Amino acid sequence: MIRFLIRRIGQSLVLLVLVSMIGFALLHLTPGGPLSQFALTPGMSAATLAQISHAMGLDRPLPIQYLDWAGHLLRGDWGRSYRDQQPVLDIIVSHLWATLELMGSSSLLAIIFGTWVGVLGAIRRYSIADYLATIGAMIGLSIPTFWFGLVMIYIFSVWLGWLPSGDMYASGHASFIDYLRHLILPCLVLTLVTIATWSRYMRASMLDVISQDYIRTARAKGLRRRAVLVRHALRNALLPMITIAGLQLPTLLGGALVTETVFTWPGMGRLFLDSIGYRDYPVVMGLLMFSALLVLIGNLIADLLYSIADPRIRLS
Amino acid sequence: MSDVLTVTDLAVRFTGEGGIVDAVEGVSFALKERETLAIVGESSSGKSVTALALMRLLGGPPNCVVRGQVTLRRQDGERLELLSLPEARMASIRGRDIGMIFQEPMTSLNPVQRVGAQIAEGLHAHERLSARAASDRAVSLLGHVGIPEPALRARAYPHQLSGGMRQRAMIAMALACRPRVLIADEPTTALDVTIQAQILELIRALQKETGMSVIFITHNLGVVAEVADRVLVMYAGQVVEDAPVATLLGRPLMPYSAGLIASVPRLDDVRRRGGRLAAIPGNVPDPRARPAGCTFHPRCAHARPDPCEAARPALEAAAPDHAVRCARWREIAA
Ligand SMILES: Nc1ncnc2c1ncn2[C@@H]1O[C@H](COP(=O)(O)OP(=O)(O)OP(=O)(O)O)[C@@H](O)[C@H]1O
Ligand SMILES: [Mg+2]
Q: Which helix (H) or strand (E) holds B52?
C-alpha cells in the first residue's frame, strides 16, 4: 500500500514535469507574446519593448526561462500575473471553488441519474425506455457543449426569461437563492453531457454483471428481485465505474471549462481563456499545473477507492 | 414413497438471433422422497436447462418460453404448480423448498461479499431471525459441511478459498434452509478427483441426515454408479431412457445409453486394448436442425430406415419402472 502510493506519486511527478515542459514550450512558441498588447500602444518604440522584455526576462533562452519558472515553483512561488501583479496561486484559488462547485454539483446529479438510467436500460433492455435513453445519450454525446449551452440560454433566458444567462450573482443582491438560479443552467448543461457518458458505461457494466453466475446463485437462494439487483448486481456493476469516474475527470474538467466560458461562470475556465488572451504566461502555466494535479489526484483517489471497494484488489 | 417433485411435459424454447432452439422437449419424470435421480447425457442435451426451468431461473419471454407442469409437494402436503406461481411466491420456494448448486464454484459466489454473509443472506430471505443469529447459523453451517475454522472462513471472500472449499460453501448455502430437494448441476466437474470424492461423500451424508431428494446432473457415469438411485438419460432435449441405476448400467435398452456406458474408460480395458475407447460416432445434432424421426438415428448402429427415420418414437414403458424412447428396443434387446 505504502509502496503503491510512493510509486504512484513518483509517476505523477514525472507526468507533471512533462506536462509543464510541453505546456511551457507550446505557450512560448505561440505567436504574439505578452508584449504584443503594448506593441500597438502609440509612441511605443522597439527599444522600450526590448527593455520591458528584458525586465520580464523574456529575452532569455526558453530552457533558462523554464528552469527559472520551475525553480520558483519548487520553492512554492507560482509567480505573479502579468496583468495585475497578483500572486498566481491566489488568483487560481479564488477561481477554483467556482469550478469545483460546478463540477461537483453536476457530477453528483449525473452519477445519480446516470446510474439510474443505466440500470434501467440494462434490466429493461430493448424496451422503449432503453431506446429513448440510448438516443438521448447519443444526442448528449454528439452535440458540442458550447452550442448546447447557447441553446439553453436562448430557451431559458432569452425566450422564457426564467433564468439568468450568465455570471454567478446578479449585481446588487447576493443571496443563496440567487446563486442557485445562476448555477442551474451551467450545471444542467454539464450534467446532461455527463449523464450521457455515465449511463452508457453503467448500462454496459450492469449488463455484464447480470449475466454472471453469482446473480443466478443469489436468485437460487430465494432473494427477491430487488435484493438481487441492489445487493448483488448494482454493487458489482458500480466497481468499474469508480475507475471510469477517474478516467472521465479530464473530460469533465474540459466540459466545465467550456461551460464556464459560455455562462461567464467565474471559474478556472474563464480565467484560462482571459489569461490566454493576455498571454499571461504565469497564470496559464499555473492553471495547467493545477488542472493536471487535479486529474492526477482524482485518479489516485479512484484507485484507492477501488481497492477498498473490491476485496480482490491488492495495491502493490 | 411419494413424489416430491413431478415434472410433466416440460418444454423450453429459446428464440434468439440464431433462430429457434427447442432446448428441452416433452421431459417428464418424478422425483421420489429421499431419492437421488441422476440426469446424464452429452453436452448440450438440455440437462442444465431442465434444472433451471424447474427453478424458474431462465430468462422470461419473449426470448425464452417454458411450458409444461412442475408440481412440488411441500412438507405439509400442499401441492404447488411452480410454473404458474407469481415470481415473488416462487422466490420464497427457491432456497427454502428447492436448493441448487452449480458447476463453477469459482464464479457462482459473489466476489465482493464475505462467504458468511452470503449464507446468512439466504437464511434472512426465508426465516425471521436477527443478524447475529443468521451469521452464527452461517458459521455453524460452514462447520457442518466440513470447512475447518468456520468462523474464520465465514469472514473470508470467495477468492480466498480453494475450489473445494467454495463448493462446500455453496452446499452450505443451498442447504441452509433445509430444502426437501437439492438440484446439483455438475457440482464436481470443476474439481480435482480427490476433492470430487469428498464433495460426493458430503452430499450423500447430508442427504442421509436430512432426508432430502437430490437431482444430480452429471456426464460422469462413474459418479452415477456411486450416487444415483435412478437415472434419466437425456439426448437432444428429450428423455430417452429412465430406469433404476442397476438396470440402466447393467441392461440399458436405448442404444444411446449403451453407447454412453461403453464409452466410460475402464482401467482393465485400457490395459488390454491399448486405451481405445468405444466412443459414440458422430456429434450431437444442432438443436436448430434436428433429424426427422428418432433424433439419435444418424449415430445409431441399430437404426433402420423404416421405424427410425419415419417418426419420433414415444417414451414407452418397457417395465413398470423402466421407460425407453426407441422404436426398435424389443428387437435390439432380443
Ligand atoms: N440462454 C440460452 N439461449 C439460447 N440457447 C440456449 C440457452 N441456454 C442453453 N441453450 C441451448 O440449450 C441447449 C441445452 O443446453 P444445456 O445447458 O441444458 O446443456 P447441458 O446438457 O447442461 O450441457 P453441459 O453438459 O455442457 O452442461 C444447448 O443447445 C444450448 O445451446
Ligand atoms: Mg449443463
A: helix B47-54
Beta bridge partners of B79: B73
- Please tell me the predicted confidence (pLDDT) of residue B216: 96
Instruction: Classify the phi-psi angles of A264: left when phi > 0, otherwise alpha if psi is within -120 to 50, otherwise beta.
Output: left
Q: Is B44 in the pocket of ligand 1 (CB under 6 A)?
A: yes
| Residue A40, pLDDT score | 67
The finding on whether B21 has its CB within 6 A of some atom of ligand 1 is yes
Strands B181-185 and B98-101: parallel
Q: Complex ipTM, two decimals?
A: 0.89
Cβ distance A225 to B94 less than 8 Å, yes or no, reads: no
Check pLDDT > 70 for residue B278.
no
Taking residues A197-209, what's their average pLDDT?
Answer: 94
Angle at Cα B97 formed by Cα B44 and Cα B42, nearest 5°?
15
Cis peptide before B62 (omega within 30 of 0): yes
Cβ contacts below 8 Å, chain A against chain B, sum to: 84
Instruction: Give the domains, in start order, of chain A with CATH numbers.
Output: 2-74 (no CATH), 88-309 (1.10.3720.10)
Q: pTM of the prediction?
A: 0.85
Buried b / exposed e across A175-198, counting CB within 10 Å, b at 16+?
Answer: eeeeeeebbebbbbbbbbbbbbbb
* Chain A interface includes B173 (CB < 8 A): yes
pLDDT at residue A173 is higher than 80: no
Interface of A with B (CB under 8 A): 212-214, 216-225, 227, 231-232, 235-236, 239, 309-312
CA distance B272 to B266: 10
**B235, pLDDT greater than 60:** yes
